[in-house]
Each structure stands twice: as C-alpha cells, then as structure tokens.
Design goal:
This protein has 85 residues and is of the alpha+beta class. 35% of the residues lie in helices and 9% in strands.
Length: 85
C-alpha cells in the first residue's frame, strides 16, 4: 500500500514490526474439524461437506422454520375470526 502512494517502505515511511496483537490470528481456519473436504473441478477451490449429524440438524431446522410459518398463518387466521370485545 505504501508503494502504491509513491513512497518507499522503510525510507519514506518508518515501519515498526510489533508482532501479533491480542486475539490476532496467524492463519484463518476455513473448514470445521468435522467437515469432509472435497476437491472441485477448479484446482484452487475446495468444498466443505457437512457430516451426517450436521445435515440432520439442518433438516430439523428447516422443518422447524416451515412449521413456524404454518403455525403463524393458522394463528393469524384464528385471531382474525375472533370477536372483538
């Protein structure tokens, strides 16, 4: 970035290496430890495949979302039919 502005690192602008700051990472973890990693047709792209337990949980969450939508529609319908007091 310094060079892009026409400066010379270490000459025009002093650079001080301070090391890692608290909480700073040396590398990023791209995959979860229990995911299966698969290659794709592109040599530099990998795909994370969740294990069966994760898929089962995702399916349950999807079912819960659908059930919530149905419940809310039924609740709105029921409340709209009630007499106001």
């Amino acid at each position: 970035m310094i060079s892009l502005y026409g400066y010379v690192p270490g000459k025009d602008i002093e650079i001080i290496f301070t090391g890692l700051r608290q909480g700073e990472k040396l590398h990023e973890e791209l995959f979860n430890h229990d995911e299966r990693i698969e290659r794709t047709t592109h040599p530099k792209i990998l795909r994370a495949v969740p294990n069966d337990t994760q898929l089962h949980i995702l399916e349950k969450l999807s079912f819960i979302d659908i059930a919530k939508e149905v419940f809310m529609k039924d609740l709105y319908y029921f409340l709209s039919k009630q007499k106001k007091t």
